[in-house]
Specification:
Blueprint: H1 18-21, H2 26-36, H3 42-51, H4 54-57, H5 62-65, E1 75-77, E2 84-89, E3 92-100, H6 102-107, H7 109-125, E4 130-140, H8 146-166, E5 170-177, E6 186-196, E7 211-216, H9 226-230, E8 235-236, E9 259-260, H10 261-264, H11 273-288, E10 294-297, H12 302-314, E11 317-321, H13 334-339, E12 345-350, H14 355-364, E13 369-376, E14 380-385, E15 388-394, H15 395-398, H16 438-446, H17 455-458, E16 469-471, E17 479-482, E18 489-495, H18 498-503, H19 505-521, E19 526-535, H20 542-562, E20 566-572, E21 576-577, E22 580-581, E23 585-594, E24 611-615, H21 626-631, H22 644-659, E25 665-668, H23 673-685, E26 689-695, H24 699-704, E27 711-715, H25 720-729, E28 734-740, E29 744-751, E30 769-772, H26 773-788
Parallel strand pairs: 4-5, 8-9, 11-14, 19-20, 26-29
Antiparallel strand pairs: 1-2, 2-3, 3-6, 4-6, 7-12, 7-13, 10-12, 11-13, 14-15, 16-17, 17-18, 18-23, 19-23, 21-22, 24-27, 24-28, 25-27, 26-28, 29-30
Length: 800
């Protein structure tokens, strides 16, 4: 008799059936019965509960993910493997992936973030690649909220503490503040690795009779059901619980559903970066020497996930001796050993004649190692404890044949597009008009939490260890990493336009792909592929599932338009709190290849008297912009539009301009609009500019609107005609707007026939922006520290 069938004690309140306590629905329990042909025992039910969680099974998103383009030039490994792998020539390949650790980080920010870094690094070196970089994309509530400050502090220290100690540089990412993340922060981490193609290693378990070896840290109670259970929980918030130390794990299966952060704290994993460093070196040596037939890290779902996934991929089974698993705590129950998510552990499939060599490698690196089982031909995961078989489940029932839900999707009710009767219209989209000070608006934007310098954060990270970093986190945009022994470099960027996604999920996802790839292209690099982390709310709510469905459609449409494969990623659902769901946040990671690192183009102005060109044109729409968050937007205003064909042509132009040596610098127009982009170019290069901008819409739209597919490009005067011709050959609008030089940023605004009947074409339509670079830089450097109430940085401005 299972717990779910046991009668209640007389006089006791009705017991919660075990399957429900584990987050398994009645329909899912029936499906488990169908897969097994019998009732599962308690240990088997615990295994199903983690493997059929959203985190492991993708039971809500799998049909959507199948619609994404996955084939492309040079793709060596794609979705289904631990990381995507793409060839870069010369026998080398790049491995990359992005994943979330949102829910653990909401419970215990330091360990949640640290183990997020550790987990994504294992996904990389499991493929045979040496990790060379990390990018962290972080999203929190309002910067002045004490809880936000607590979470930011813990998460940043966790990312830095783990990455710095393990010796992998953190070279880029994002830090965004929005009220929707107040109860549910997002911690998405991308990792990149480099490998010789011949050493590519897959997560598989071929060859019945091969041994199953577990090596790395011992198994403990930390992380029982951690990622798999927390990722299916909606949190209530206990302010005092957030600040206490992690407690001991429970001795019974941990359920999902609504729970306080305090009750979930024991399920957070605990990381050891020094053990991870040893694991990296031992694993890469095992791969280099050809000692493993397959390799899988132990992340969500622990031993259960690693054994069932590798066996299912090879059509084999595994017989596991649970007594052989090294443990760090006495008295652990069978289910605890099987679903523990203790960190820094690896599962290797090894030929019997290589067992001694594998043990010697592990011993030399000081890593515990144990043979815990054997590959079988029957397709079942069978577990024995004290000589008695306690589990027998078909591997595919836990993985490829896991349940898939056909969720209902419906868009939210349409909101009123104009002010209610009697309400005065909001003319925010017209600011700044004559008499307003656009320079003050620019200064305010540069000092705002979402646009100010990230120096207080990235200075806690080691961004140069391994000495591959050509361009790191000192400014926004893409990171550049040299490939040693070649002239090549890898270029990487992350992006998510959640405010736009909240208005239109398709557009938000497509714009995120466009910006992440644009950031890579403006260095001169060719984007190779996309990885994604889809952060959304409760998929059982039709509106939330519609947002996910539309975002996946936008992701696929953008990748197809730009000719890029999606090589893998992660889906994080149930990102909600009592205050509501997060904004739809499809985090996009892109890796590109720069054939010659010496041809890299940066965003900073590089010399005085260069011609400044604006490539592309603004389109109406201030909704979702940083300007709208600061000044407000009209109720009838919408987001800007995106033309994916225009975006493809713009990126092709950028790469051609770099390859032909025509561009001195390139910066895209994104957060804060054109004025902020120009200010960043000037501040980072420490060179001012005198510019004249023809206003096509309104000063606010042209200066601060965030419509995509626009670039600020500088060039030597002798190259300006050729660069303008190149833009037109790509079908792009282009305009010379001024020259670099001086120590001030001056932008005059002139009419261009679309500023209203009261304005004459070519006349000034608003006060100019005229601000000293020193003032812009001071505001930008101190904005984040001021917002978070951290000690202001004393460092000099970022250089070129």
């Amino acid at each position: 008799m299972t717990v779910a069938e046991r009668p209640d004690r007389p006089g006791a309140p009705p017991a919660v059936p075990l399957h429900r306590a584990l987050g398994v629905t009645d329909d899912e329990l029936a499906a488990i019965h169908d897969r097994l042909g019998r009732v599962p025992n308690d240990v088997e039910l615990a295994m199903f509960s983690v493997m059929w969680s959203e985190h492991c099974s993708y039971k809500s998103s799998r049909p959507l993910l199948r619609t994404l383009p996955t084939a492309g030039e040079g793709v060596v490994a794609g979705p289904g493997e631990n990381a995507g792998v793409i060839s870069i020539g010369d026998g080398l390949a790049v491995a990359f992936k992005i994943e979330s650790h949102n829910h653990p980080s909401a419970v215990e920010p330091y360990q949640g973030a640290a183990t997020g870094v550790g987990g994504i690094l294992r996904d990389i070196f499991t493929m045979g690649a040496r990790p060379i970089a990390v990018l962290d994309a972080l999203r929190f509530g309002e910067a002045d909220d004490p809880r936000t400050r607590h979470l930011v502090d813990g998460v940043v220290r966790g990312v830095g503490g783990y990455g710095n100690c393990v010796g992998v540089p953190t070279v880029g990412g994002e830090l965004v503040f929005d009220p929707s993340y107040a109860g549910n922060p997002l911690v998405n981490v991308m990792a990149i690795g480099l490998l010789e193609e011949r050493l590519l290693t897959l997560a598989q378990a071929p060859g019945p009779g091969n041994l199953v070896i577990l090596y790395g840290s011992a198994t403990g109670r930390d992380g029982i059901g951690g990622a798999s259970v927390l990722a299916s929980a909606t949190f209530t918030h206990d302010e005092t619980a957030d600040r206490g130390p992690a407690g001991a794990s429970p001795r019974s299966p941990v359920g999902s559903g609504s729970a306080s952060l305090q009750s979930k704290r024991p399920t957070v994993q605990v990381g050891d970066p020094f053990a991870e460093k040893l694991l990296i070196e031992a694993s890469l040596e095992l791969i280099e020497r050809g000692l493993v037939e397959g390799l899988q890290d132990l992340g969500a779902g622990g031993i259960t996930c690693a054994t069932s996934e590798t066996a299912d991929r090879s059509g084999t089974g595994m017989a596991i001796d649970l007594d052989a698993v090294p443990r760090r705590e006495p008295g652990m129950a069978a289910f605890e050993v099987l679903i523990s998510e203790s960190q820094e552990r690896m599962l290797a499939v090894v030929r019997p004649d290589q067992e001694t060599a594998v043990r010697e490698v592990c011993q030399r690196w000081g890593i515990p190692c144990a043979t815990i089982g054997v590959v079988t031909a029957d397709g079942d995961v069978a577990v024995r404890e004290r000589g008695v078989e306690i589990v027998r489940i078909p591997a595919r029932a836990l993985t490829s044949d896991a349940i898939v839900h056909d969720r209902l999707a419906s868009p939210p009710p349409r909101r009123r597009a104009a002010p209610a009767p009697g309400e005065a219209p909001n003319t925010g989209e017209q600011l700044p008009e004559r008499g307003m000070d656009p320079g003050a608006v620019l200064v305010a934007l540069l000092g705002s939490p979402n646009l100010a310098s990230r120096r207080p954060v990235f200075e806690q990270y080691d961004s140069t260890v391994q000495v591959n970093t050509v361009a790191g986190p000192a400014r926004g945009g893409a990171a550049v990493l040299r490939v040693k022994g070649t002239s090549k470099a890898l270029v990487a960027s992350t992006d998510a336009n959640a405010p736009i996604g909240g208005l239109d999920p398709w557009l938000g996802a497509a714009m995120s792909v466009a910006e992440a790839t644009r950031n890579v292209s403006i260095t001169g690099a060719r984007p190779l592929g996309v990885t994604n982390c889809l952060n959304f709310g409760d998929p059982t709510r039709p509106e939330a599932f519609w947002q996910l469905k539309e975002a996946v459609r936008g992701l696929g449409d953008a990748c197809r338009a730009l000719g890029l494969p999606v090589t893998g990623g992660n889906v994080s659902l149930y990102n909600e709190s009592p205050a509501g769901a997060i904004l739809p946040t499809p985090e996009i990671g892109v890796v590109g290849l720069l054939e010659d690192v010496e041809l890299r183009i940066g965003p900073a102005f590089v010399a005085a008297d260069d011609v400044v060109l604006l490539v592309g044109e603004a389109t109406p729409g201030l909704a979702g912009s940083e300007y709208a968050a600061l000044a407000g937007a009209a109720a009838e205003d919408g987001p800007p539009s995106l033309d994916l064909d225009r975006e493809r042509d713009l990126q092709a132009f950028a790469r051609a301009a770099a390859a032909r040596g025509l561009a001195a610098s390139m910066q895209d127009v994104s957060g804060g609009g054109l004025a902020v982009a120009l200010a960043e170019c000037a501040m980072w290069g420490r060179i001012g500019a005198a510019l004249r901008l023809h206003v096509s819409h309104s000063p606010a739209v042209d200066l601060f609107g965030e419509s995509p597919s626009r670039l600020v490009v500088t060039t030597r005067p002798r190259h300006a005609p050729a660069l303008e011709l190149l833009a037109r050959q790509h079908g792009l609008p282009v305009e010379a707007i001024g020259r670099t030089g001086g120590d001030r940023l001056v932008i005059e605004l002139a009419g261009a026939g679309a500023t209203g009947a009261a304005e004459e074409r070519g006349s000034r339509v608003a006060d100019p922006i005229d601000v000293a670079l020193a003032d812009l830089t001071h505001t930008w450097e101190h904005g984040l520290a001021r917002a978070l109430d951290w000690e202001a940085p004393a460092a000099a401005p970022e250089g070129r």
